[in-house]
C-alpha cells in the first residue's frame, strides 16, 4: 500500500502544490476543503506514482476531523497543516469572533486533527520507519509582523508554538516541523506598488513560488529523518531585512 498523506486546504494555491509534490513522491494524498463545489470539481487525480483525492471536510469541527480520520485510513505517513484564513484587521476594527476564528483554523484544528491521527502516524512509523507532521507558518508571525494583520498573525504564532510542543509530545515516533514562507504566491488583489516595495527587500530579488514551499515541505516530511522541532524559512532571505 502506498504511504498516505493528509494536506488540509490542499485543493488550490500552495496546498495544491504541496499535494502534487507529495503524490509525485509516490504518496496517496487526501486533501481537504470546506467548499463542496471545489471538492467535487477536484475529485481524484493520478499524479506521478501517487494520487490525490479531495474530501469536503471542515477541520475546525469535530465532525470534519472525524471525516478526515475515517477517509485517511489506519496508516498516515504525513500530515501537512496548510489550511489558513486571512482578513486584514487593523486595530480598532478587531472583534472577538475574528480572533477565535483565526485560532480555530490555525491552531485548534491542527492540534485536534494531529491528536486524532496520532495512532495512524505511529502505525506509519512502525511500518515505514518514520512519520511526520508539517505546519505551514509565516515569517511575519516570527519577528517580522506587518501592520493590519494582528488577528491572522496571532493564529500563526500559536501554530508555531505547537511545532515545539508537539515535537516533544510525539517523539520519538513522530517528527514535527514547520515551513515559514514569506510571499510564495501573491493574492491577485495585491497592490502592485506594495508588491514592488516588498520584493525590493528580498535578498534573492523575487517572490517565491508554491513549488518553493512544496519542496521544503517534502524535504521535512519525507527526507529529514533526524529533524524535529525545526522551522524552515522559505522567504528568499526576507526575514533578514
Walk me through this protein's architecture.
- Helix content is 44%, strand content 17%.
- It has 241 residues and is an alpha/beta fold.
- The chain has a single domain, classed as NAD(P)-binding Rossmann-like Domain (Rossmann fold, 3-Layer(aba) Sandwich), CATH 3.40.50.720.
- Strands 3-4-2-1-5-6-7-8 form an 8-stranded mixed sheet, with helices on both faces.
- α1 (13-24) crosses α7 (210-223), α3 (62-72) packs parallel to α4 (96-128) and α4 runs parallel beside α5.
- The longest helix has 33 residues, at 96-128.
The number of helical elements comes to 7
Structural class: alpha/beta
Strand content is 15-25%
Q: Work out the number of β strands.
A: 8
The coarse overall form would be: globular
* CATH topology category name: Rossmann fold
Percent of residues in helices: 40-55%
Oligomerization state: single chain
Radius of gyration: 17 Å
What is the spatial order of strands in the main beta sheet? 3-4-2-1-5-6-7-8
Mean pLDDT: 93
Order of helices and strands: EHEHEEHEHEHEHHE
- The separation of the N and C termini measures 46 Å
**Text of the CATH class:** Alpha Beta
Assigned CATH superfamily: NAD(P)-binding Rossmann-like Domain
Give me the CATH architecture, please: 3-Layer(aba) Sandwich
Unreliable segments of 5+ consecutive residues = none
What is the count of distinct domains?
A: 1
Task: Profile the largest sheet.
Answer: 8 strands, mixed
Amino acid at each position: 500500500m502506498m504511504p498516505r498523506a493528509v494536506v488540509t486546504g490542499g485543493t488550490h494555491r500552495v496546498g495544491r502544490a504541496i499535494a502534487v509534490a507529495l503524490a509525485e513522491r509516490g504518496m496517496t494524498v487526501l486533501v481537504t476543503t470546506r467548499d463542496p463545489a471545489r471538492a467535487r470539481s477536484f475529485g481524484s487525480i493520478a499524479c506521478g506514482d501517487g494520487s490525490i483525492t479531495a474530501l469536503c471536510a471542515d477541520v475546525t469541527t469535530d465532525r470534519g476531523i472525524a471525516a478526515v480520520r475515517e477517509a485517511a485510513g489506519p496508516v498516515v505517513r504525513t500530515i501537512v497543516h496548510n489550511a489558513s484564513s486571512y482578513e486584514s484587521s487593523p486595530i480598532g476594527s478587531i472583534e472577538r469572533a475574528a480572533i477565535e476564528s483565526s485560532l480555530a483554523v490555525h491552531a485548534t484544528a491542527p492540534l485536534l486533527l494531529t491528536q486524532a491521527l496520532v495512532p495512524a502516524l505511529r502505525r506509519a512509523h512502525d511500518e515505514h520507519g518514520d512519520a511526520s507532521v508539517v505546519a505551514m507558518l509565516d515569517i511575519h508571525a516570527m519577528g517580522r509582523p506587518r501592520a493590519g494583520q494582528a488577528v491572522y498573525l496571532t493564529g500563526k504564532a500559536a501554530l508555531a508554538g505547537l511545532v515545539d510542543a508537539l515535537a516533544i509530545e510525539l517523539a520519538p515516533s513522530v517528527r514535527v516541523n514547520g515551513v515559514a514562507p514569506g510571499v510564495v504566491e501573491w493574492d491577485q488583489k495585491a497592490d502592485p506598488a506594495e508588491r514592488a516595495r516588498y520584493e525590493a527587500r528580498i535578498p534573492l530579488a523575487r517572490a517565491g513560488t508554491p513549488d518553493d514551499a512544496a519542496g521544503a515541505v517534502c524535504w521535512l516530511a519525507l527526507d529529514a529523518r533526524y529533524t524535529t522541532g525545526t522551522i524552515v524559512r522559505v522567504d528568499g532571505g526576507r526575514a533578514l531585512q
